């Protein structure tokens, strides 16, 4: 079986197909995300452009590893009452951390739905983000908001936490996804208190906790006594841009490009034409999956708007990417440029 398999990761939609107001950090938005199953449209331009505005992704080796590791942890903790182990996904921006943990959550929830089809009130996954400059109460409120618990400004931290723990246990939560953990600064009092609050949730809830954040080690998540405890209980999976050095690495990158290419709703796009530009695409995007997705989808939208219905090198060249990708590309000459320089040397 290929290491790269198609996996649609889509935003929440309402029954009319329009984007819903609820974000993934609410149970309604999460449920729509898990249940959404779009297909590439063949209709008018607006429908196809709307489809391209969604995040189209494939099942990368990182996603495969995150899902395998987390599901193993979920099974190992079934009879564990304390010191439960968790998982941290960390790396530079644009390497698919949020995509990986939400793919994990979706895969897990769908598996639970298949296993317990009659338990309609079951809510196996919680997805929250750590707010900037968070306090313990702010974090607890994020959990309560996901669960849809009615809160008043008078509710103190203990009341919010107890309501969250009782409700989460009642609805069968067994996987908690916590994004943006780099917002925790253990060197500050509030950051340390939020870390303690997360630890308390992990002790109260019979669930596996999965964190995601930008370079969490540099952010100090493993510093000090609290950090050392996190380091001793959490497995770390690093994310990075796709390499392009060895034949195996190039094949993996080409498979990623091909996977995205097959999702394009273009009427005249020759199959495999983007895969032939794999070196150019890697140079343009620094091997970053987020930049690659943006580049291909943007070029596809332009191909629809200008009526060509297939992506050309000119379409790709016209797309301006993020600063990191543009800086990387500016330091890497194209093969044609390099060959010309060598010929005249």
Quick overview of this protein structure:
The chain has 345 residues and is α/β, with parallel strands linked by helices.
Overview features:
Rossmann fold, disordered N terminus, two-stranded antiparallel ribbon, 345 residues, globular
How does the major sheet shape up? Answer: 5 strands, parallel
Structural class of the helices, strands and pairings? alpha/beta
CATH class of the largest domain: Alpha Beta
How many strands? 7
**Number of separate structural domains:** 2
User: How far do the termini sit from each other?
Assistant: 46 Å
Based on the structure given, which CATH architecture of the largest domain is correct? Answer: 3-Layer(aba) Sandwich
pLDDT average, as an integer?
87
Pick out the low-confidence regions: 1-20, 336-345
> What general form does the structure show?
globular
CATH overall fold name of the largest domain = Rossmann fold
- Strand arrangement within the widest β-sheet reads 4-5-6-3-7
User: C-alpha Rg, in Å?
Assistant: 22 Å
Give the SSE order as H and E letters: EHHEHEHEHHEHEHEHHHHHH
Pfam families: TniB (PF05621)
GO molecular function: ATP binding
Keywords: ATP-binding, Nucleotide-binding
Protein name: ATP-binding protein
Walkthrough of the structure:
The chain has 2 domains: 5-59 and 242-334, no CATH class; 61-239, 3-Layer(aba) Sandwich (Rossmann fold), CATH 3.40.50.300. By secondary structure, the protein is α/β, with parallel strands linked by helices. The strands form 2 sheets. The protein has a 5-stranded parallel sheet with strand order 4-5-6-3-7. A two-stranded antiparallel sheet has the order 1-2. It has 14 helices and 7 strands. The N and C termini lie far apart (46 Å). Helix 7 links the parallel strand 5 and strand 6. Residues 83-331 form the AAA+ ATPase domain.
């Amino acid at each position: 079986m290929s290491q790269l398999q198609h996996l649609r990761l889509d935003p929440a939609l309402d029954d009319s197909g329009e984007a819903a107001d609820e974000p993934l950090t609410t149970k309604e938005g999460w449920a729509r995300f898990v249940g959404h199953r779009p297909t590439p449209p063949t209709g008018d331009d607006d429908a196809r452009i709307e489809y391209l505005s969604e995040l189209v992704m494939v099942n990368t080796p990182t996603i495969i590893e995150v899902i395998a590791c987390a599901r193993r942890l979920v099974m190992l903790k079934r009879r564990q009452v304390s010191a439960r182990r968790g998982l941290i996904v960390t790396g530079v921006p644009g390497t698919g951390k949020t995509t990986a943990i939400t793919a994990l959550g979706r895969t897990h929830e769908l598996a639970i739905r298949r296993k317990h089809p009659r338990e309609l009130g079951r809510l196996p996954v919680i997805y929250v983000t750590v707010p900037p400059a968070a306090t313990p109460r702010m974090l607890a409120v994020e959990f309560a908001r996901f669960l849809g618990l009615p809160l008043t400004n008078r509710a103190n931290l203990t009341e919010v936490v107890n309501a969250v723990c009782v409700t989460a246990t009642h609805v069968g939560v067994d996987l908690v996804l916590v994004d943006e953990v780099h917002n925790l600064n253990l060197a500050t009092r509030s950051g340390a208190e939020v870390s303690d609050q997360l630890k308390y949730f992990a002790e109260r809830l019979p669930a596996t906790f999965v964190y995601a954040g930008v370079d969490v080690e540099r952010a100090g998540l493993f510093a000090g006594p609290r950090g050392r405890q996190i380091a001793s209980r959490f497995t770390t999976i690093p994310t990075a841009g796709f390499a392009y050095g060895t034949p195996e690495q190039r094949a993996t990158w080409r498979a990623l490009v091909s996977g995205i290419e097959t999702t394009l709703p273009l009427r005249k796009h020759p199959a495999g034409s983007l895969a032939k530009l794999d070196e150019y695409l890697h140079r343009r995007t620094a091997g970053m999956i987020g930049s690659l997705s943006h580049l291909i989808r943007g070029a596809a939208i332009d191909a629809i708007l200008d009526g060509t219905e297939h992506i050309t090198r000119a379409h790709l060249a016209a797309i301006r990417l993020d600063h990191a990708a543009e800086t990387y590309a500016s330091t890497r000459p194209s093969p044609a440029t390099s060959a010309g320089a060598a010929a005249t040397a």
